[in-house]
Every structure is written in structure tokens, then in C-alpha cells.
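Appendix B: complex inputs.
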Amino acid sequence: MSANNLNGNASNTELTLTPFLKAILMQIRGQDTYGFYRSWSDELILKPFIVTKQKKREISVEGEVDPATLSRINAYFRAIAARIEQETGLISNVVVNVNHEGFGWALVFSGRLLLVVKTLRDAHRFGFESLEKLSAEGETLVEKGLDLAKRFPEVGKI
Amino acid sequence: MSANNLNGNASNTELTLTPFLKAILMQIRGQDTYGFYRSWSDELILKPFIVTKQKKREISVEGEVDPATLSRINAYFRAIAARIEQETGLISNVVVNVNHEGFGWALVFSGRLLLVVKTLRDAHRFGFESLEKLSAEGETLVEKGLDLAKRFPEVGKI
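Resulting structure:
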């Protein structure tokens, strides 16, 4: 909380934490075993998720995907899984598979039901135009997943 | 065909090609763009899938999983997908994700339905006691997948 206030005072724009942004922060802070992010504001943690079109063009898609980028991709899909879990009580798993060329799959599933299926490309450049976009796109995937979980509850609970 | 006969003549035991073993061979020969396996008998191609308990103990689980082992894991699950496709007409995808410690997931899915969900561990030591075991275990996963595809056709076709 104090980090949140600090951030609000330090920057001009107030950060609006939507449920999805909160879910991402929870994933990152929850996995922060060594307290690396303890003193970071929410805004600072979320900042690397913002990659403008201009910035994307500057990121090379040669070589391996940066481990920090990979862990952001993981946090994003784990946040989607956590949001669906909040709403349905279904426990879900996340599998992200990115090859050396930045292509791959991100899957979120409960039981035998795939709640999210997303093909990844140019994973090196993973990011969103703004926090609003990040939140909106994440929440769209959450909604689609929730819709499926409601339509096929017997498959999600296998 | 000629490779098959050659193999039959060369070895003492006749190789019985079950539908599952045929599916594995088809995956490997089908991906053999450079003709690496063209002169290999079926038996020779399948041989590395046989890893006895004794041999498993000798394989270190330190370091990265051998690329050849990874491609056998892929061929195995792609063969399962192909068998299910033969029987149902459902197009399926295979995602295999193994981390540096040899742990991971193998998933086969059609639409939003997970036909196979398998956690992998000690992937370095992937293999089967015999060709019969390989065929039987693969076919068991095929049967389970078929059962799910029949129970939830509307999820598999999304």
C-alpha cells in the first residue's frame, strides 16, 4: 500500500489498478522470493509491460527471447489464470512454450478444458501500447475463458 | 517397404508394426526433410525409444535434455495426435514444454479440448522397456483421447 501511495505522489498520473493489473502485480510480488521488487512501486513493476510500436521496432527478434520478457509473458498468462480462478474456483495450469525464434503457444487450462489458447509470435517484443491496453486485452481473454468455463463445466472439472 | 523387408531379414525377431508404431515411424520419416533416415530400417529408427531401467539409471538428469531425446518425445506425442486424428478427423496440436531440469508438460488438443495431458519428469530418460510397452502405452493415451473426443465433440470442434 505504501508503495502504491509513494508511486501516486511521485508521478503525475494516478495509476488505476484494475482487477487484471492487480492480478499481474500479485503474480510478480507473489513469486518474489528474494524481495527483489519489495521496494518497487506498482507502476515501476508494470512499466516493462508497456512496449510502444516504436520500441517494438527497435527490439531485435534475433537470438533467444530475453528471460525477463519470458517471465513477463508467464506473469501475464498466470494473471489470466488467477482471474478465472477467482471467478470460477477452477484450478488452472499455465503452459508457455516459446522457441528460439520467438514463436510458440500460451495455454491456460482447467481439467481438460482449454480456457486460453494463444499463439505467440515475436515474443521478443511482448508488450502493450499502454496499461489500459494491457488490462483490456488481458480482461478480454479472462472473459472468453470464463464463458468457456461456464459453457462446459463438466470438462473443466475432469 | 524395402527398408522394412531388409530389417526383417537382417534381424532374428520379426518386427510387428502396430498402428501406433507405424504412426511414430510416419512422424519421423515425414519430418525427415534431408533424408537422414531414408536408408534406416524401421527397427533402427524405433530402437532409441527403448530405454531399459538399467539404461535409465545410467543417463544423467543433469544439464539440458538431449535434443534427440526431445525430438523423440515430440514424435511420440505427435503420433498420439495423428492416431486420434485418423479415428476422429479432429485436427490436433501438440505442445511439449520441458524445462532445464527435465520437468514439463506434454499436451495434445483439438479445439478447446485437451485430449492428452501428461506431466513429464526426468525427460532425459524418456523411453520404454520394449517396443510392446511403447506401443501399449501410446495406444492407451490414444484410447483415452478418443474417449474424451467422443464425450465432448462440441469442445473438440470449437
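The CA atoms of residues 32 and 133 of chain B lie 25 Å apart.
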